Structure formats: structure tokens, C-alpha cells
């Protein structure tokens, strides 16, 4: 037994500053192949990946995200929930499959599949010495992303990933996660709210200390403050319409 992957996973941190060294197509192919071997619900394989190499398209996607590392990276991948291929199968088979890809369940299956594939890619890339950051910010304007990438019906850009050689001054470190006892339950969900409150209070201190140390005291917010700020701002409320425009989440 080896705990190599355990240690690799524990070292993860998002990288947001890359050297201007593009990944070769050979490396990209390897990453996608590793991603494709992730488990996939009912063998449906509901993900496609668009590698964005055209600088104008990257610049346009950067505008959607507002994040410079969408443009400045070694390679940019966009993960797409993809039932377009199932639509082709549907045309040739006697049964009607449309309800399946238009359902909420179909959307969940596609989201999970894309995430599993992406995380295989992330870990493989990190093992090769690259850094990665996921890009949910591309969902700021799904209609625009669909236009830029020419995405057909029954496809949905769920997130992106910037990959590259970490810049020397990238300066990231693994961020502390919630306590093990807080996220792991045995047999039943332990809903002891006093204990959970205590665990969160301790974790808040850990996170505040982590930020203070990394920013010479300029940032000291707790995890609770961070999630409260984020979750109280109304985020992407057009998503339901964007999903339905693409053919998803209708039932
Ligand atoms: C689906 C997904 C979307 C994300 N979107 C963004 C993003 O748009 N921009 C960004 O800078 N980080 C993004 N992140 C990275 C998270 O902010 C990051 O994983 C989290 O803060 C934990 O930090 P760590 O990855 O360094 O451990 C995203 C992560 C995930 C899983």
C-alpha cells in the first residue's frame, strides 16, 4: 500500500498565477485521457471538454469571468455537460430519451460526471507539477460562453479550469479544511448543533489565523464571515433560465 496520492491530494491549493509556458497538445491529451477514466454514471459519459487555444476567445472568456488567469495560463479547459451525443443516439433508437436529458436528474448526472472527470485531471496535472484553478466564474454569463464556444443544444458549460506551471511568486499554500469530525458521520448524521457550533468556532479561528499569517494581518476574516458575505450576495439568479435555454432542468 502506498499513500502517495494521499499526500498529493493533501498538498492541493488553487494556483492563480502561471508562467507563460503553454502545455503541449501531448500533455493535454494525457490529461483528458486520465479524466475520461473517471467513473461515469451508468456509463453515460456526459462530459465534453473544450480546450481554448485561440487568444481572442480566451480574452473574451476572461471578460466573462473578470479573472486574469483565464487568459494568462498554460492551458484553458472548459468542462461541458454534454447530452448532444445522446441526442444523436436518440435519433437512431426507437425509444425516446429526451425526458432523461431534460430532467433535473439528467442535470445532476451531468454535473457529477463533469466534476469527477475534472478532478481526475486536476490531480493528474498536479502530479505532473502543474497548478490548477477551477473557474466557476465562467457561469457569470452562460449565454456569452455558449456563443464564444459555439455550444449546441443539450450542452452546458459548467466550469473551466486553468492549468499551468506555477509562477515563482504564486505563493499559495494549502487552505485549512473543516475538521474531520465535522464532516464525517458514522451510520447516522450526528445533528448535535451545539457540538457543530463549537467545531465551527474553532475552525473560524484557524481560518482567521491562516489569512492573517498569509497577508501580514491585512485579512483576518473567519470562514463563517466569508461564507456569509458570499451567500448573502445574490449569485447568478439567471441560472434557471440559462439551463432551460440549453435544454436542461425542464422536468
Ligand atoms: C467548481 C469550482 C469553481 C471555482 N471557481 C473559481 C473561480 O471562478 N475563480 C477562482 O479564483 N477560484 C475558483 N475556485 C477555487 C476555489 O475558490 C478554491 O478551491 C477554494 O477557495 C479552496 O481553495 P484551494 O483550492 O486553494 O484549496 C473554484 C472551485 C471549484 C471547485
List the defining traits of the structure above:
about 250 residues, alpha+beta, NADH Oxidase, binds flavin mononucleotide, flavoprotein, oxidoreductase activity, FMN
The N- to C-terminal Cα distance equals 46 Å
Summed over residues and divided by their number, the pLDDT gives a mean of 96
Strand arrangement, major sheet: 1-2-4-3
What is the domain total for the residues?
A: 2
By helix and strand content, what is the structural category? alpha+beta
Ligand list: flavin mononucleotide
Number of continuous helical runs: 11
What is the CATH topology of the largest domain? NADH Oxidase
The percent range for helix content is 40-55%
Question: What's the total count of β strands?
Answer: 4
Quick one: CATH superfamily of the largest domain?
NADH Oxidase
CATH class of the largest domain: Alpha Beta
Anisotropy-based shape: globular
In N-to-C order, the SSE pattern is HHEHEHHHEHEHHHH
The major β-sheet equals: 4 strands, antiparallel
The poorly predicted ranges are none
Domain Nitroreductase: 10-164
Cofactor: FMN
GO molecular function: oxidoreductase activity
Enzyme class: oxidoreductase
Question: How would you describe this structure to a colleague?
Answer:
Its EC number is 1.6.-.-. It is an enzyme of class 1 (oxidoreductase). It comes from Staphylococcus muscae. The protein is α+β, with helices and mostly antiparallel strands and 251 residues long. The chain has two domains: 7-167 and 234-245, NADH Oxidase (3-Layer(aba) Sandwich), CATH 3.40.109.10; 180-220, no CATH class. It is 47% helix and 12% strand. The chain has eleven helices and four strands, in the order H-H-E-H-E-H-H-H-E-H-E-H-H-H-H. The protein has helices spanning 4-10, 25-36, 55-65, 84-92, 98-102, 104-127, 142-149, 180-183, 193-214, 223-232, 239-245, and strands at 47-52, 75-82, 131-135, 155-164. A four-stranded antiparallel sheet has the order 1-2-4-3, sandwiched between helices. It starts with a helix and ends in a 6-residue tail after the last helix. The chain binds flavin mononucleotide. Flavin mononucleotide is lined by residues 12-14, 16, 67, 133-137, 159, 175.
Amino acid at each position: 500500500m502506498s499513500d502517495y496520492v494521499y499526500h498529493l491530494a493533501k498538498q492541493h491549493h488553487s494556483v492563480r498565477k502561471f508562467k507563460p509556458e503553454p502545455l503541449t497538445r501531448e500533455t493535454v491529451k494525457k490529461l483528458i485521457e486520465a479524466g475520461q477514466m473517471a467513473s461515469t454514471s451508468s456509463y453515460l459519459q456526459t462530459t465534453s471538454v473544450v480546450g481554448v487555444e485561440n487568444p481572442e476567445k480566451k480574452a473574451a472568456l476572461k471578460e466573462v469571468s473578470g479573472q486574469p488567469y483565464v487568459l494568462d495560463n498554460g492551458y484553458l479547459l472548459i468542462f461541458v455537460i454534454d447530452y448532444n451525443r445522446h441526442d444523436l443516439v436518440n435519433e437512431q433508437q426507437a425509444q425516446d430519451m429526451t425526458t432523461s436529458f431534460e430532467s433535473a436528474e439528467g442535470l445532476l448526472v451531468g454535473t457529477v460526471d463533469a466534476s469527477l472527470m475534472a478532478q481526475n485531471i486536476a490531480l493528474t496535472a498536479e502530479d505532473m507539477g502543474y497548478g490548477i484553478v477551477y473557474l466557476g466564474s465562467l457561469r457569470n454569463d452562460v449565454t456569452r460562453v455558449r456563443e464564444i464556444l459555439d455550444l449546441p443544444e443539450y450542452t452546458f458549460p459548467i466550469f473551466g479550469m486553468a492549468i499551468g506551471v506555477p509562477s515563482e511568486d504564486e505563493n499559495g499554500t494549502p487552505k485549512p479544511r473543516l475538521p474531520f469530525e465535522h464532516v464525517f458521520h458514522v451510520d447516522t448524521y450526528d445533528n448535535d448543533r451545539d457540538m457543530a457550533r463549537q467545531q465551527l468556532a474553532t475552525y473560524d479561528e484557524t481560518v482567521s489565523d491562516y489569512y492573517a499569517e498569509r497577508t501580514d494581518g491585512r485579512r483576518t476574516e473567519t470562514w463563517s464571515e466569508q461564507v456569509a458575505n458570499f451567500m448573502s450576495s445574490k449569485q447568478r439568479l439567471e441560472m434557471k433560465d440559462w439551463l432551460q435555454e440549453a435544454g436542461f432542468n425542464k422536468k
